[in-house]
């Protein structure tokens, strides 16, 4: 099931770069944010004959990616391993964002997103609240969370808050929100919770 979600996510990520648009991929844990961003690097870089627009835009966008990379390189003389990994995914316009990142790195990433200097953002809800970002598409990788005992569908207010990052005034007149469901039960649960239910108190 994870691989199915990853394949779907990689399709929309490649499409975002090909169309010069930005996508926010919403995940629920820090580990998911880092793991998925590294895996997307491999999938995005596996070009085919049909990915002409993707290759062209990746080449065209290298300058803006490099500006972000150079800012990260200036943070400290000897970069820790996570920073080196961050640079490796930035070469493909990908970043991740979560509360576990040191504040200096988070600020650079947030500014890069605001300036449209990256294309694919994999983030936990630390990025969702109150930020006006040039995001065209929000994709919910798996809109469920584990409480240590069982899985729960995201709260409706949390879904709407994250979904509201797409199509912000001044950036886009239309936007997309994608929720991945890999079976009919999830599809019904997500549809009923996110589209047909009222906000929680």
Structural description of this entry:
This protein has helices at residues 2-18, 30-44, 52-60, 62-73, 81-90, 103-114, 156-163, 184-194, and strands spanning 23-26, 94-97, 120-123, 137-140, 144-146, 151-153, 176-179. Strand 2 (94-97), helix 6 (103-114) and strand 3 form a beta-alpha-beta unit. The strands form two sheets. It has a five-stranded parallel sheet, sandwiched between helices. The model has no long low-confidence stretch (mean pLDDT 92). Helix 1 crosses helix 2 (30-44) and helix 1 packs across helix 3. It is α/β, with parallel strands linked by helices. Helices cover 47% and strands 13% of the residues.
Q: Number of helical segments?
A: 8
What portion of the residues fall into strands of 2 or more residues? Answer: 5-15%
Question: What would you call the shape?
Answer: globular
What is the spatial order of strands in the main beta sheet? 2-3-1-4-7
Low-confidence stretches: none
What integer value in Å does the Rg equal?
Answer: 17 Å
Percentage of residues assigned to helices: 40-55%
Order of helices and strands: HEHHHHEHEEEEHEH
The chain-level structural class is alpha/beta
Q: What is the overall pLDDT average? A: 92
> How far is the first residue's CA from the last residue's CA?
32 Å
